[in-house]
Structure formats: structure tokens, C-alpha cells
Design a protein that fits this description.
5 strands; 3 helices
Length: 114
């Protein structure tokens, strides 16, 4: 995604790694909001933290997309916020604008039961 975004005119990707620390991830979201990004794509460390993330982004009018973890406030997500379908999340379009990506620590995929 970063390689693709870096090749687009007017898009400046910014990557943050929370290293599985909820407080650090919330701080990264707040910093992204404060710097005026146009959109945030986040893989939440914990679903319970998504309410605070949604509130911070909504207060600033910033688009927010959750990936790989369901937000606890899915039924009441503010405007400009979504959990794109798992297979198509990388197709979410935020236009040619600056965005930030915040993710938890990388982990091994869980084995499938089939």
C-alpha cells in the first residue's frame, strides 16, 4: 500500500507502529489529527480503543478506516468512518491527500479451522 500511495501525486503516506501498545496507538492517532492528515487507516491494537479513535477523528472531520479488527462502535460510526470489507480494504479511496496508517505489532496469521 505504501509503495502504491508513494507513486500517486499529492499523496504522502505516514506509517506509525504502536507495537501492541493501546496508549501509544491512541497518541499516534491524536498526533495524526493534530498534524492535519486528511485520512487515517488504522489496525486497532484493541477493539475497545476504537471509540476514542473515532471521536478524535470525527471531531477533526478526518476520514477513518479500520482494518483487520472490528470497531466496538460499528453501529454508531460517525460520518466518514468505515470498516471496509476485509478483501477490499486496500481499495478504500481517500483521494489524493495526505493520510496516516497506524497499526499494532505484526503477528502471525491465525490458523484457519478448515
Amino acid at each position: 500500500m505504501i509503495d502504491h500511495a508513494g507513486g500517486l501525486d499529492g499523496v504522502t503516506p505516514q506509517i506509525e507502529d504502536a507495537q501492541n501498545d493501546v496508549g501509544k496507538q491512541l497518541n499516534q492517532i491524536e498526533n495524526a489529527v493534530a498534524t492535519g492528515v486528511d485520512a487515517i487507516i488504522v489496525k486497532p491494537v484493541e477493539s475497545d480503543a476504537t471509540v476514542a479513535m473515532s471521536e478524535a477523528a470525527a471531531a477533526a472531520g478526518i476520514a477513518l478506516a479500520y482494518v483487520n479488527r472490528r470497531a466496538v462502535n460499528m453501529a454508531s460510526l460517525p460520518a466518514k468512518q468505515a470498516l471496509p470489507p476485509r478483501m477490499t480494504w486496500n481499495r478504500a479511496r481517500f483521494g489524493r491527500k495526505r493520510f496516516a496508517v497506524s497499526r499494532g505489532a505484526r503477528s502471525k496469521p491465525k490458523p484457519r479451522p478448515w
